[in-house]
Amino acid sequence: MNVEKLKIPSNFQYDHDPLDMAVASIGQCDALINNSFIDVGLLLSLLMLKESETTSRMEGTKITFEDLVLSDEGVGGIGKRSPVEEARGVTYAILEGNKMLKDGLPISNRFIKAMHRSLMRHAQYENKNVIPGEFRNVNVRVGRYRPPDHQHVPDLMSYLEQYIHNQEINISPLIKVGIIHAQFERIHPFADGNGRIGRLLISFLLKEYGFTSRVSYFISPYVEQQKNYYYDGLEFIEYDGGWDRWITTFLGLVKGSSGNTIRIIEMLNSLYMDGDFLNFHNKNSQHIKNFIFNKPIFTVSQLKLYLEKQSVYLSTSGIKNQLNGSDDVTILRQSKGKSENVYKCNKIAGILTDIS
User: Which catalytic residues are annotated (predicted)?
Assistant: First the structure.
């Protein structure tokens, strides 16, 4: 590929109305998260799970929300290099990115490589050229698009890093986020994992540029629903020679993603504030409710361990009796042999799986 075609704009003007609406939608979403009735940590864990599920599925990983929620305790014999663990790599990458931000590391190639290393550490990649945390050393093809030869990747990514932090560029910061994301996907710096890292890069750039107060804005659930629109927008950069169509696409995806996230949070908040929902009519109800909001598919052992960390000690049979007496929790999977019953809160899980 002619590397000259990979130039990115340093001056870009765009219609204020779509831009202003997209910016406002992010602000509304961020404010709703910050003022949620649900603990922010609980809420973010749910949004991260949703991102992990959908962004992985977009890349061909066969994964369900139920398997992903259960996986962190190894329920069902899930092990390393399974599709579920591969999907959880997205969560690992987010946590690694958050840690680096907390340590004061700016978004850079070092930052991006570290996230990729976390993402790919349990991935089932068949390509032997995949090196977690390292730029590719082979040429690749993505559909009919051929990214630049591998020897150009370090220089292109170095320029992109400079572009991220160049404050003299006369471009709206949100449009700049869209340009950076598209350019990352065009360079395709890794042998695998580019889509997942590229979409997470949007989340971290929104935090870096002050649109969100924390890394909380995840776009993949809506992009999955509109993936043809998304990929067509990226292709227009290459085959029509302009950025306008992509920026229109990107701002539309941002606005749509905000709307979806706002609906999810409002529905979860409404459910959380319902005094009759997950009310076990005892002094431990709130602890159990918080646990189930964080993990709507679970086992008694997982709940028991959580309660003990809150200095609440209940017997296994006592917990089972409370769960079995609730209309808000059902048995998803009956125990077999040494395995436990798996319980599910259909209302919470339904909100997270029915809205994309």
Answer: 188
